Amino acid sequence: MLRMTLNARSTLVQQVISQLSEQIRAGEWPIGAKIPTEPQLVEVLGVGRNTVREAVRALTHAGVLEGVQGSGTYVRSTDELTGVVARKFGTAEVGHTVEVRRALEVEAARLAALRRTPEDLDRLDAALVARDAAWQRAEADAFVEADADLHVAVVAAAHNPMLAELYASVGAAIRASVAAAVGPSLAAGAAGIDHGRLVEAIRAGDPDRAASEAGRFLEAPAGA
């Protein structure tokens, strides 16, 4: 249930934005869900219609919400950063997208080789097995998810909360780019590159080799 605590140091609109964002991040309204109507929000929050309208408009502009005429307002991302990044990735040149992935994933691999724990290695091994199995079964959707899970596991093994949060914000966009690269029949050979050497470099605690392996997958626009 929504609750509103007023703070004299900030505006009502900012507080409503913060409260709605918190509900979305908490999963009360998952991605794709329809949020309450404007009158319902007014009643629950105890603020004016214009305040609610401005807050919803701000979150819509940020890409968190989307208004569908005749239907209502729906959640499109979990936070402002995710919404902005998704829009940028959606319109960016493929080469630019790959460069951003390199900047994040190469450094994550390097740090993972230095900081990985036994639990991290177990997660990496499981993700690698799932990725390879999905590729062998030629299941495109499963492969995209398994590939993403492996890269997320690498980032998690870096043990840098800021890096993990930033990478999470581009997760949906990366999945979309991988899905486009592999196609429905897993036709793009570059996406099927063996990631075993990356995991082994991290296991061996070799940061230079881990970074090199991570970068190798992203040398071509279709890399995964």
TrEMBL record:
Residue ranges occupied by any HTH gntR-type domain in the UniProt entry: 10-78
PROSITE patterns per the UniProt record, alphabetical: HTH_GNTR
Keyword Plastid recorded: no
CDD domains assigned to the protein according to its UniProt record, in alphabetical order: WHTH_GntR
MF (Gene Ontology): DNA binding; DNA-binding transcription factor activity
Pfam families the UniProt entry points to: FCD, GntR
SUPFAM superfamilies per the UniProt record, alphabetical: GntR ligand-binding domain-like, Winged helix' DNA-binding domain
Keywords noted in UniProt: DNA-binding, Transcription, Transcription regulation
PANTHER family for this protein: REGULATORY PROTEIN GNTR HTH, TRANSCRIPTIONAL REGULATOR, GNTR FAMILY
Entry protein name: GntR family transcriptional regulator
Organism: Asanoa ferruginea
